[in-house]
Amino acid sequence: xxxxxxxxxxxxxxxLVPLKNSPGQLVGMLIQPVFMIVVFVYLFGGAASGNxxxxxxxxxxxxxxxxxxxxxxxxxxxxxxxxxxxxxxxxRTMPIARSAPLxxxxxxxxxxxxxxxAMSVLVxxxxxxxxxxxxxxALAGLAVVxxxxxxxxxxxxxxxxxxxxxxxxxxxxxxxxxxxTLGSSAFIPSTNMPGWxxxxxxxxxxxxxxxxxxxxxxxxLHAADVWISLGGAAALFAVxxxxxxxxxxxxxx
Length: 253
Hints:
This protein is mostly helical. It has one domain (2-251). It contains 11 helices and no strands. The longest helix is centred in the C-terminal third of the chain and has 29 residues, at 223-251. It is globular.
Protein backbone atom coordinates (compact mmCIF):
# COMPACT_ATOMS: atom_id res chain seq x y z
CA UNK A 1 0.00 0.00 0.00
CA UNK A 2 2.82 2.40 0.92
CA UNK A 3 4.62 1.55 -2.31
CA UNK A 4 1.51 2.19 -4.39
CA UNK A 5 1.01 5.59 -2.75
CA UNK A 6 4.68 6.52 -3.20
CA UNK A 7 4.62 5.50 -6.84
CA UNK A 8 1.27 7.21 -7.21
CA UNK A 9 2.81 10.49 -6.00
CA UNK A 10 5.55 10.13 -8.60
CA UNK A 11 3.00 9.55 -11.34
CA UNK A 12 0.92 12.44 -10.02
CA UNK A 13 3.91 14.70 -10.58
CA UNK A 14 4.21 13.22 -14.08
CA UNK A 15 0.61 14.27 -14.71
CA LEU A 16 1.19 17.81 -13.43
CA VAL A 17 4.41 18.58 -15.31
CA PRO A 18 2.65 18.98 -18.72
CA LEU A 19 0.66 21.90 -17.31
CA LYS A 20 3.68 24.16 -17.71
CA ASN A 21 3.66 23.36 -21.43
CA SER A 22 -0.11 23.79 -21.72
CA PRO A 23 -0.81 27.39 -20.65
CA GLY A 24 -4.28 27.22 -22.18
CA GLN A 25 -5.29 24.38 -19.87
CA LEU A 26 -3.90 26.20 -16.84
CA VAL A 27 -5.57 29.48 -17.78
CA GLY A 28 -8.88 27.69 -18.34
CA MET A 29 -8.63 26.13 -14.90
CA LEU A 30 -8.05 29.56 -13.32
CA ILE A 31 -10.65 31.40 -15.40
CA GLN A 32 -13.51 29.02 -14.63
CA PRO A 33 -14.06 30.33 -11.04
CA VAL A 34 -14.04 33.90 -12.33
CA PHE A 35 -16.68 33.09 -14.94
CA MET A 36 -18.86 31.19 -12.47
CA ILE A 37 -18.76 33.94 -9.86
CA VAL A 38 -19.53 36.66 -12.41
CA VAL A 39 -22.50 34.71 -13.77
CA PHE A 40 -24.03 33.47 -10.54
CA VAL A 41 -23.15 36.27 -8.14
CA TYR A 42 -23.26 39.37 -10.33
CA LEU A 43 -25.84 38.45 -12.97
CA PHE A 44 -28.16 36.04 -11.14
CA GLY A 45 -27.57 36.88 -7.50
CA GLY A 46 -27.70 40.65 -7.75
CA ALA A 47 -30.69 40.59 -10.07
CA ALA A 48 -32.63 38.15 -7.89
CA SER A 49 -32.07 39.72 -4.49
CA GLY A 50 -31.33 43.31 -5.42
CA ASN A 51 -28.55 43.29 -2.83
CA UNK A 52 -25.19 42.19 -4.21
CA UNK A 53 -23.52 42.06 -0.79
CA UNK A 54 -26.06 39.56 0.52
CA UNK A 55 -25.93 37.63 -2.74
CA UNK A 56 -22.14 37.28 -2.44
CA UNK A 57 -22.37 35.92 1.11
CA UNK A 58 -25.00 33.36 0.16
CA UNK A 59 -23.92 32.33 -3.32
CA UNK A 60 -20.13 32.25 -3.16
CA UNK A 61 -19.97 29.07 -1.04
CA UNK A 62 -22.40 27.47 -3.50
CA UNK A 63 -20.28 28.55 -6.48
CA UNK A 64 -17.17 27.16 -4.78
CA UNK A 65 -18.93 23.82 -4.24
CA UNK A 66 -20.14 23.68 -7.84
CA UNK A 67 -16.73 24.55 -9.27
CA UNK A 68 -15.11 21.86 -7.11
CA UNK A 69 -17.64 19.17 -8.02
CA UNK A 70 -17.55 19.95 -11.74
CA UNK A 71 -13.74 19.77 -11.63
CA UNK A 72 -13.99 16.07 -10.73
CA UNK A 73 -15.11 15.38 -14.30
CA UNK A 74 -11.48 15.94 -15.25
CA UNK A 75 -10.44 12.77 -13.41
CA UNK A 76 -12.57 10.54 -15.60
CA UNK A 77 -11.73 12.50 -18.75
CA UNK A 78 -8.01 12.22 -18.14
CA UNK A 79 -8.26 8.50 -17.40
CA UNK A 80 -10.33 7.85 -20.52
CA UNK A 81 -7.85 9.89 -22.58
CA UNK A 82 -4.80 8.09 -21.17
CA UNK A 83 -6.39 4.68 -21.81
CA UNK A 84 -7.37 5.68 -25.34
CA UNK A 85 -3.84 6.93 -26.07
CA UNK A 86 -2.23 3.74 -24.78
CA UNK A 87 -0.48 5.41 -21.84
CA UNK A 88 -1.66 2.73 -19.43
CA UNK A 89 -0.34 0.02 -21.73
CA UNK A 90 3.13 1.45 -21.14
CA UNK A 91 2.55 1.59 -17.38
CA ARG A 92 1.58 -2.07 -17.44
CA THR A 93 5.07 -3.02 -18.62
CA MET A 94 6.78 -1.07 -15.80
CA PRO A 95 7.72 -2.59 -12.41
CA ILE A 96 5.19 -0.55 -10.45
CA ALA A 97 2.07 -1.33 -8.42
CA ARG A 98 -0.92 -1.92 -10.68
CA SER A 99 -2.97 0.72 -8.85
CA ALA A 100 -0.22 3.39 -8.91
CA PRO A 101 -1.31 5.06 -12.21
CA LEU A 102 -4.90 5.31 -10.99
CA UNK A 103 -3.83 6.71 -7.60
CA UNK A 104 -1.46 9.14 -9.32
CA UNK A 105 -4.19 10.44 -11.63
CA UNK A 106 -6.55 11.11 -8.74
CA UNK A 107 -3.85 12.78 -6.61
CA UNK A 108 -2.87 15.06 -9.52
CA UNK A 109 -6.47 16.09 -10.07
CA UNK A 110 -6.94 16.78 -6.36
CA UNK A 111 -3.96 19.14 -6.50
CA UNK A 112 -5.43 21.04 -9.45
CA UNK A 113 -8.73 21.11 -7.57
CA UNK A 114 -6.96 22.84 -4.67
CA UNK A 115 -5.74 25.48 -7.13
CA UNK A 116 -9.29 25.96 -8.41
CA UNK A 117 -10.66 26.29 -4.87
CA ALA A 118 -7.96 28.80 -3.92
CA MET A 119 -8.72 30.83 -7.05
CA SER A 120 -12.43 30.79 -6.19
CA VAL A 121 -11.73 32.17 -2.71
CA LEU A 122 -9.44 34.89 -4.09
CA VAL A 123 -12.03 35.94 -6.67
CA UNK A 124 -14.67 35.89 -3.95
CA UNK A 125 -12.64 38.30 -1.87
CA UNK A 126 -12.22 40.46 -4.94
CA UNK A 127 -16.02 40.81 -5.31
CA UNK A 128 -16.57 41.59 -1.64
CA UNK A 129 -16.94 38.23 0.11
CA UNK A 130 -15.55 38.12 3.63
CA UNK A 131 -15.42 35.21 6.07
CA UNK A 132 -17.88 35.99 8.86
CA UNK A 133 -16.63 33.33 11.29
CA UNK A 134 -12.89 32.72 11.68
CA UNK A 135 -10.04 31.32 9.52
CA UNK A 136 -10.02 27.89 11.17
CA UNK A 137 -13.75 27.44 10.60
CA ALA A 138 -13.35 28.49 6.96
CA LEU A 139 -10.51 25.99 6.50
CA ALA A 140 -12.65 23.28 8.10
CA GLY A 141 -15.42 24.01 5.61
CA LEU A 142 -13.00 23.84 2.68
CA ALA A 143 -11.64 20.55 4.05
CA VAL A 144 -15.15 19.05 4.06
CA VAL A 145 -15.62 20.13 0.43
CA UNK A 146 -12.23 18.72 -0.54
CA UNK A 147 -13.01 15.40 1.17
CA UNK A 148 -16.35 15.14 -0.65
CA UNK A 149 -14.78 15.99 -4.00
CA UNK A 150 -11.98 13.47 -3.39
CA UNK A 151 -14.65 10.81 -2.90
CA UNK A 152 -16.52 11.99 -5.99
CA UNK A 153 -13.28 11.77 -7.99
CA UNK A 154 -13.37 8.00 -7.51
CA UNK A 155 -16.87 7.96 -8.98
CA UNK A 156 -15.60 10.00 -11.91
CA UNK A 157 -12.68 7.61 -12.28
CA UNK A 158 -15.05 4.65 -12.43
CA UNK A 159 -17.17 6.34 -15.10
CA UNK A 160 -14.03 7.15 -17.10
CA UNK A 161 -12.92 3.52 -16.89
CA UNK A 162 -16.23 1.97 -17.95
CA UNK A 163 -17.20 4.56 -20.59
CA UNK A 164 -16.48 3.57 -24.19
CA UNK A 165 -14.82 6.89 -25.05
CA UNK A 166 -14.11 10.41 -23.77
CA UNK A 167 -17.33 11.85 -25.22
CA UNK A 168 -19.45 9.23 -23.49
CA UNK A 169 -17.65 9.82 -20.19
CA UNK A 170 -18.20 13.57 -20.34
CA UNK A 171 -21.87 13.15 -21.20
CA UNK A 172 -22.48 10.67 -18.38
CA UNK A 173 -20.74 12.83 -15.77
CA UNK A 174 -22.49 16.02 -16.83
CA UNK A 175 -25.87 14.26 -16.78
CA UNK A 176 -25.24 13.29 -13.15
CA UNK A 177 -23.65 16.49 -11.83
CA UNK A 178 -25.84 19.17 -13.41
CA UNK A 179 -29.10 18.08 -11.67
CA UNK A 180 -27.19 17.76 -8.40
CA THR A 181 -25.55 21.18 -8.54
CA LEU A 182 -28.21 23.30 -10.23
CA GLY A 183 -31.05 21.49 -8.45
CA SER A 184 -29.71 22.33 -5.02
CA SER A 185 -29.95 25.19 -2.56
CA ALA A 186 -26.36 26.15 -3.33
CA PHE A 187 -27.46 29.29 -5.19
CA ILE A 188 -30.96 30.03 -3.97
CA PRO A 189 -32.94 29.09 -0.84
CA SER A 190 -35.53 26.38 -1.30
CA THR A 191 -38.29 28.32 0.51
CA ASN A 192 -39.63 29.97 -2.64
CA MET A 193 -39.53 26.81 -4.75
CA PRO A 194 -42.46 24.48 -5.61
CA GLY A 195 -43.08 21.65 -3.16
CA TRP A 196 -41.54 18.88 -5.28
CA UNK A 197 -38.41 20.97 -5.87
CA UNK A 198 -38.15 21.79 -2.17
CA UNK A 199 -38.19 18.05 -1.47
CA UNK A 200 -35.42 17.41 -4.00
CA UNK A 201 -33.31 20.25 -2.63
CA UNK A 202 -33.79 18.86 0.87
CA UNK A 203 -32.49 15.40 0.00
CA UNK A 204 -29.85 16.60 -2.45
CA UNK A 205 -26.39 16.05 -0.87
CA UNK A 206 -25.02 19.10 -2.70
CA UNK A 207 -27.49 21.28 -0.77
CA UNK A 208 -26.06 19.98 2.49
CA UNK A 209 -22.46 20.34 1.28
CA UNK A 210 -23.06 23.96 0.27
CA UNK A 211 -24.92 24.54 3.54
CA UNK A 212 -22.01 23.14 5.54
CA UNK A 213 -19.49 25.36 3.75
CA UNK A 214 -21.76 28.39 4.11
CA UNK A 215 -22.15 27.67 7.83
CA UNK A 216 -18.40 27.34 8.34
CA UNK A 217 -17.65 30.55 6.42
CA UNK A 218 -20.67 32.78 7.06
CA UNK A 219 -22.20 31.39 10.25
CA UNK A 220 -25.35 29.61 11.45
CA LEU A 221 -23.81 26.19 10.92
CA HIS A 222 -26.14 23.19 11.08
CA ALA A 223 -24.53 19.98 12.32
CA ALA A 224 -26.81 17.92 10.07
CA ASP A 225 -25.25 19.51 6.96
CA VAL A 226 -21.78 18.51 8.13
CA TRP A 227 -22.70 14.95 9.07
CA ILE A 228 -24.65 14.35 5.85
CA SER A 229 -21.71 15.69 3.82
CA LEU A 230 -19.23 13.47 5.66
CA GLY A 231 -21.57 10.49 5.43
CA GLY A 232 -22.01 11.09 1.71
CA ALA A 233 -18.24 11.20 1.24
CA ALA A 234 -17.84 7.95 3.21
CA ALA A 235 -20.54 6.27 1.09
CA LEU A 236 -18.88 7.41 -2.15
CA PHE A 237 -15.51 6.09 -1.00
CA ALA A 238 -17.03 2.76 0.10
CA VAL A 239 -18.87 2.23 -3.18
CA UNK A 240 -16.61 3.67 -5.86
CA UNK A 241 -13.07 2.89 -4.69
CA UNK A 242 -13.62 -0.87 -5.12
CA UNK A 243 -15.59 -0.33 -8.34
CA UNK A 244 -12.89 1.92 -9.81
CA UNK A 245 -10.09 -0.49 -8.85
CA UNK A 246 -11.99 -3.43 -10.36
CA UNK A 247 -12.73 -1.53 -13.57
CA UNK A 248 -9.12 -0.38 -13.77
CA UNK A 249 -7.77 -3.93 -13.37
CA UNK A 250 -10.06 -5.09 -16.16
CA UNK A 251 -8.93 -2.31 -18.52
CA UNK A 252 -5.20 -2.86 -17.98
CA UNK A 253 -5.31 -6.67 -17.85
